[in-house]
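Form 12-C: Joint structure prediction
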Amino acid sequence: MGTVPMEHGLILAGVLFAMGAAGLLARRNVVFMLLSVEVMLNAAGLAFIVAGSRWGRADGQVMFLFVLTTAAAEVAVGLALILCFYKHLGTLDADAAASLRG
Amino acid sequence: MDIVFYISAAVAAAATFLVVTRLHAVHALLYLVVSLLSVAVIFYALGASYAAALEAIIYAGAIMVLFVFVIMLLRLGREATAQESQWLRARTWVGPGILAAVLAGEVVAVAVVSPGGQAAAGQAVAPVAVGASLLGPYLLGVELASMLLLAGLVGAYHLARPEAPPGPPRKGH
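Section 2 - Result
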């Protein structure tokens, strides 16, 4: 029991988070940007689980549940926004919305 | 269980890298599902079996289905059929398939080696403890999460509803 060091789990969470952040900054397609945000949220949840597993407490999994809830609500609104975006502008390029005019 | 953690970590890192580098949204989605499933296996290896089940059911299941539906809605056009036949080529799904097969092999190996799933690489936390904690000290958080989900539901409905038919402007708008 307890043979994987906590650092390795946290390193994995950091790597996943960094890849999500890089994708969010590099991609200009709004669908890919939302996918990258999902990757980042998932990495944050992984960090909570690793910490909860390290100390043997349930709090890590409880916080993961809250992260999951946030992700679900964010995806619902984000996907509805993407549909609106595509309907109004006819493209998925995030730069097309730079003028902030409806 | 150590080796399970490290193999799943490698699969998760590879799949996530492919998510942010694919050009086609459906390809990225396939890799993201594999990435989420590998994180679920990591949760199980760390002893968080309840979180592992939720990750597989809600994240890799429900949320990804939402993404698939929206991407299908966005592709309504003449080229949709051509794309459909293109997606069915082996080149599209063989990568996610191999990564998912690695995960499935891990799960089978764990089930054979330790049928009870007792040998966790972290300290196992039973679902009972999570539930007691959720409905005990974190009860306010659960209530707030339900309000957040309701707000997300109403917001998504408001954004996605069809345009109002042209007519006299309503009062107060």
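Section 3 - Comments
The helical segments of chain B are 2-21, 25-45, 49-74, 80-87, 90-113, 127-134, 139-160. Residues 126-158 of chain B form one domain.
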